Amino acid sequence: xxxxxxxxxxxxxxxxxxxxxxxxxxxxxxxxxxxxxxxxxxxxxxxxxxxxxxxxxxxxxxxxxxxxxxxxxxxxxxxxxxxxxxxxxxxxxxxxxxxxxxxxxxxxxxxxxxxxxxxxxxxxxxxxxxxxxxxxxxxxxxxxxxxxxxxxxxxxxxxxxxxxxxxxxxxxxxxxxxxxxxxxxxxxxxxxxxxxxxxxxxxxxxxxxxxxxxxxxxxxxxxxxxxxxxxxxxxxxxxxxxxxx
Amino acid sequence: xxxxxxxxxxxxxxxxxxxxxxxxxxxxxxxxxxxxxxxxxxxxxxxxxxxxxxxxxxxxxxxxxxxxxxxxxxxxxxxxxxxxxxxxxxxxxxxxxxxxxxxxxxxxxxxxxxxxxxxxxxxxxxxxxxxxxxxxxxxxxxxxxxxxxxxxxxxxxxxxxxxxxxxxxxxxxxxxxxxxxxxxxxxxxxxxxxxxxxxxxxxxxxxxxxxxxxxxxxxxxxxxxxxxxxxxxxxxxxxxxxxxxxxxxxxxxxxxxxxxxxxxxxxxxxxxxxxxxxxxxxxxxxxxxxxxxxxxxxxxxxxxxxxxxxxxxxxxxxxxxxxxxxxxxxxxxxxxxxxxxxxxx
Lengths: 245, 345
Hints:
The complex is a heterodimer.
Chain A: H1 23-27, H2 33-75, H3 80-92, H4 95-106, H5 110-134, H6 138-146, H7 151-188, H8 194-202, H9 207-235, H10 237-240
Helix pairs in contact in A: 2-5, 2-7, 2-9, 3-5, 4-5, 4-7, 5-7, 6-7, 7-8, 7-9, 8-9
Chain B: E1 10-11, E2 14-15, E3 20-27, E4 37-44, E5 49-53, H1 60-67, E6 75-80, E7 83-84, H2 90-95, E8 97-101, H3 112-116, H4 118-122, H5 127-140, H6 145-148, H7 157-169, E9 175-179, H8 187-204, E10 207-212, H9 215-221, E11 224-229, E12 233-238, H10 240-245, H11 250-256, H12 260-265, E13 289-291, H13 296-305, E14 311-314, E15 320-324, H14 326-335
Parallel strand pairs in B: 5-10, 5-11, 8-9, 9-10, 13-14
Antiparallel strand pairs in B: 1-2, 3-4, 3-6, 6-7, 11-12, 14-15
């Protein structure tokens, strides 16, 4: 079974020669475990770690920026529209184009990748955080003010904790989005799990490397999403508590 | 029924109850030509329950919310224990005033004990004192320590409303504001909560401003009732008995209902009136008896069901306390300063 069409019909895929090449690799079968396990340490493990770093940094930067903007917008309503407009605009730029544009200005480096990835988290995180902060029911806010909590105390002790489920929902979407988008960054600069994928493509469609990169991405996304679910359960025991429990 | 003493009783945590005075209070919302509250003046003595009642749009909730500056007044003044609320830091003022609303507004993300001790923690009480006060309040409202560790979503509506009252009482405020506190509870539980609150109030003697649209609840809960009409105008401020006996005008008469005579009878128990001796012609066969704790209204109902024959009244030990007849009830309704029931002015 072929996952990738050969680039040229003469000669088949160009397989990087890492010494003794197995028949599986020479035939470019769907997935060669032997090759994968042999190159886990020198190719995939570093790529995976790099991918995690890229994602974590982008989401962290995006979260800090979005959180500050959402708190501002929550207090001053007029901030909402311009921020939504700008972040939507960034969100709609095709990722490949954005990477190419930024390479022109910043160069093919880590900053370029982080700026692009961060810009994609803004809309998701900003809207979710703002929705969470603004979603507290009016009677809870009325009681909070009526008991003498100051605006700052209402924000810190009532609105923020109650916004946690919405914030984590936003983080889950943002992380999964960034994990998938980060692979495209390798088109502009060799980094993350996109690197083995693009290498496989330029080597005439080496199935094993291509699939390994893609599958690791999917696993990473599922694991990250699961971790956030666990974090949310830990942080918001009240949300799962039901009557009679 | 009414305690008109205005002297505030003191406890270790400050005032146990403080008198409240509305002095020519007017509230006009920006952009509105007509006032929401118009020249409102009345005084609630310390330790009394004052019910603000009236049809929707009469400004009763607005009037209540002016007290803790959830809404700021336009002119006039409100004094708590003789001190003006104008110019006070709203959050400080509110921490000294208990606040209960219909929807309760418990914090869903913290447990019951944490909810109850919200104001003490704002006031900077230490952990030990907060815990002690929390346990005390749980006991006061009849919840177990285990329930104190639950989240609000794990409690029934009635239990949540009790928690709302306990939370308002936590820092022992001299004044409580209650906005239709039992309005969202089913009738059976509402009556139970009303009775529980009255029992608590007899013990705690807080000054309470209680808002409701239900005249029956007003009559039951209030030491005094302020009846407001649309435009925030105070029509009558009096005891329930006086309001039922002498409605100030046609509006009040209609608001309290044509059955106000019966409602008024429900305010007095047989123990509070002088009963008749046994009738001369003793015909005890099939004679109905009633306890001294029954109201005049209940007694009248029984008399009506038995061809106007007087009832035998017995105390809780089964001793005959006397007899009650239609004539006696009529006399009682006209003798205790109630004036003429029938004719509104």
